[in-house]
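Bug #77: duplicate submission created two jobs. Keeping one. Sequence:
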Amino acid sequence: MVRTYKVMLLPNNKQRTKLCECAGVARWAYNWALEQEQISYKNSGKFINDRGLRKKLTQLKQTEEYKWLNNYSNNITKQAIKDACKAFKNFFKGRNKFPKFKSKKRSKQSFYQDTVKIVIKETHIKLEKLTTFKKKNKQKINWIKLVEKGRIPTGKNIKYFNPRVTFDGLNWWLSIGIEIQQEANESLTDGIDLGIKDLAVVSTGQKFKNINKTAKVKKLEKHLKRLQRKLSKKYELNKIQTKGGEYCYRKTKNIKKLEFLVLKTQRRLKNIRHDYIHQITASLVRTKPKYVVMESLNTCGILKNKKLSKSIQEQLFYEFKKQMEYKCAWNNIKFILADRFYPSSKTCSNCGSIKTKLSLSERTFRCNECGYEIDRDLNASINLKNYGNSIA
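Kept job's structure:
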């Protein structure tokens, strides 16, 4: 099985410039491939395969106008063309919408690196052709420092898959896939119930609190609101009326600084929430159960509740499910998703009778048949565990 690692890079100013240039080359090659496909379809009603486009690009590189492409890795343009052709194939198979040209301002900056030419060590990574100079002191630009020491496994027998360098607006990241072996697990089952009061309640009785209620997160949210209000006022002060009578906003250096601070605060909040979910999911998978059962929630339907929509959105239920799913796959644990209409909260975990009505304010489940009393969320998690055992 292939496991993906994502590590933050620490490039210097020269390396940042080179990484931006490489991402620009990948974007140019992708847009060029889309343009060639569209022209070919208009003229002949057929599309060109990626091999034909790469041959065309090789001929372009020999001309004076496109000679600058030789200063960058051939694998960047090669993979960008493959991605463009794949986007067209996905469109015709009904998987995605019609592919669009990548914008310089709005699109995510990223580029591909060859699996053979990439070199990974404990503290640094070597990227291909960041500089064209062959002197040893100039070749140092190719080596970029990693934030986490020894995060990516290294060795002669390790195979790497699809290494990509991306920029998220603040930092540069390397994501790379590595093949791993799976081990057998114990014959245990964990039922996990997600909620708003507590993020997750496990059938073993373990509870994980809602991190959005902590003082740290509340303080950051208040700080973000202040920054956004300040930014909005700055935009209103720099509003200009055009000749046509319409209004447009002039972006000053102070506005750019504020936008960066807003992005930084938003990213920090996102990282705190994601890190908390990573800690929970890792601790659950570490117990090595044979099955993990979760409920398939109708999140879009739940978000229609205006009073609870913000709290539900901040809980990141989909992210929790996604992390549990791939971490279970890594550790050879069977992940079971219970049916959306399975009454896990209304069913008594003691006698199995189902309640007809159960309001959201009832936090303690009381069975009308046997009189059994238990915490509502714990009862749901035990029912999910029983559901998994009955299927397995």
